[in-house]
């Protein structure tokens, strides 16, 4: 039986002297979309960064595709097939959209070809020669996501990809996530936009003060509305 793409046990993480994560336990099964919910400062983004070894000190276990990674450097973790789409997007303004797309190295076999990516994101094909500075926020977000699809990563860590975007772009990103799920990608979403995240996820983890305080499945969503209002105000 294949190992889960991601399994985390008792994960603690620090930024310098600041102790942010206090024993996070979660797992993500093959082909799942899992959403981390919580207020700002709950530790959701830090959890994604800690998975990749981008925080300072960390303790606990983070197992990716059966490999324990807490002693590995971030570039070695990425080569296990992990793609990270950070909130700040990281588009290079001096490069064209297509140059940005082609810049990251292949991490693993099976990455999408450029034609496949353009079929999924027609806007990017139209803007292929445009400098990064000329892209709209929505186009930059599509490009940030497209870049990791080309890399061969099959475990995607997506941080606030809908933030500040027009509803039509948010709808498009939802369609892309559904399409990736049908292709067997495993996705961890950090999202403040509950309306965007709710229909996409198979399971939800609620975080508060650097810990998981609740987990539930899509089928339990309605009965958890009271709890979500208490923790998230939604």
Keywords summarizing the entry:
single chain; 234 residues; alpha/beta; Rossmann fold; six-stranded mixed β-sheet; 9 helices; 10 strands; globular
Strands ordered across the widest β-sheet: 6-7-8-3-9-10
Which fold name fills CATH's third level, the topology? Rossmann fold
Low-confidence runs: none
Task: Tell me the name of the CATH homologous superfamily.
Answer: P-loop containing nucleotide triphosphate hydrolases
Whole-angstrom Rg: 17 Å
Helix content: 25-40%
Instruction: Please state the structural category.
Output: alpha/beta
How many angstroms separate the termini? 38 Å
Range of strand content:
25-35%
* Average predicted local confidence, pLDDT: 92
Order of helices and strands: EEEHEEHEHHHHEHEHEEH
What does this molecule look like?
This protein is an alpha/beta fold and 234 residues long. It has one domain (6-232): P-loop containing nucleotide triphosphate hydrolases (Rossmann fold). Helix content is 31%, strand content 26%. The chain contains 9 helices and 10 strands. Strands 6-7-8-3-9-10 form a 6-stranded mixed β-sheet, with helices on both faces. A 4-stranded antiparallel β-sheet has the order 2-1-4-5, with helices on one face. Strand 1 and strand 2 form a beta hairpin. The longest helix has 16 residues, at 167-182. The protein starts with 5 loop residues before the first strand and ends with a helix. 39% of the residues are buried. The mean pLDDT is 92.
